[in-house]
What does this fold into?
Amino acid sequence: MPVSVVIGSQWGDEGKGKIVDLISQDIDIVARYQGGANAGHTICWGDETFVLHLVPSGIFQPNVQCVIGNGVVIDPVAMVEEINMIKDLGYNVEGRLFISHNAHLIMPYHKRIEEARERWRDAGAIGTTGRGIGPAYVDKFARTGVRVVDLLDRDILRKKLMSSLEEKNAILENVYGAEKIDVEAMIEEYVEFDKLIDPYVKDTTNFLVHALKEGKHVLAEGAQGSLLDVDFGTYPFVTSSHPTVGGCCTGLGVPPTSINRVIGIVKAYCTRVGNGPFPTELEGDNGEALRKAGHEFGATTGRPRRCGWLDLVALNYTSMINGFTELAITKLDVLSGLDEIDVCTGYRVNGKSTKRFPSDIRMLSSVEPEYVTLPGWSEDITGVTDWDKLPKNAQDYLSFISEYLDVPAHIVSSGPKREQTIIR
Ligand code: GDP
Ligand code: IMO
Ligand code: MG
It folds into this structure.
């Protein structure tokens, strides 16, 4: 059986959690392949709402197994907290959640370095989630990281942390003028994680590849969004991993030839948390109205999300990079009640019109969006589950997106809950 991948097509928070939870009903294994607890994936059904940061969004489907792949950076404190939260809700986690022994760990010094670096960058700050993601990936690539497998051997963990902290403390104190980390206290805290994490640790690549051979269906869950990809996003205002489709192979160890379905999650408008260019951003009352209607506040940090119109130039670019085979368009209900809806179909750059997404963020920061104005609809469409029950203008809005991108929208989300969905 093949691998399906769910990918955020914009700057994150497109509603990936909702869609992964929904699709998981027909899936055997859901696997996260990158990022860490910077993600906040919301899942709702009935009167329940939960936000997951590290555990894959398939965990609330009792027959689904979940994998946290080698490409994820794991904060053991956040991990244990989340496992406990899920257990307290009455879900069985042992034997159902597996963590790659090769995944790297986020340590307290990563968060402290991130905080110091953001302060140091001053006006150029990225506006990170403060979860230590960037510095943990830096250590991974500098080959000085600590991995899950190291947690299971106290002597190795102690040695690695001692040597790492010597360098980190010198940087914290001498470069950033920040407070040092107490080596012994940190080691004492982290050696305790071996017992807590041990039941979940596995060679997840071997597990996944065998599962695929046995005919199991794997759903890979991307975190963040394609425009936050460290290579393809709006660098340097990006995250430090690869949310795009290639990250699925390197972050899980599944071959590219096993992927046959790439689902782009598209919010019906656009949001961004943190700094960086956002051509279709609506400032003032219009942005505020969208933020209010869509409850656009970060699921991880609670920060207000910047809001704006749908940007088809950016979406066409992320569709090209990921090879979306289908779209899931979310939060359509949020646009109800608008007389008119603007959609960006081109950029004006130096007086010329283009449909190409510029790779230079200085250029992206100065483009003028060219809009097509489509008629809105007044009906409340919250909870609609049938395409034919959508107002004609809402259908036309969705068709406009699919036609521009030349990708069909198989799923349309009409509310935060699992059941508030149109499947075509
Ligand atoms: P993710 O990071 O991509 O999983 O998205 P988040 O969970 O951070 O943000 C999406 C927010 O929109 C959450 O509060 C969801 O409950 C909510 N949501 C998802 N789909 C819909 C939808 O179709 N309509 C509405 N109104 N809310 C939605
Ligand atoms: P989900 O999976 C939205 C943004 C941060 C910041 C930049 C870098 O819920 O869609 P980082 O902490 O990763 O170093 O921050 O990336 N960011 C997200 N924005 N949704 C997310 O995740 C995000 N994860 C990181 O706001 O701009
Ligand atoms: Mg989110």
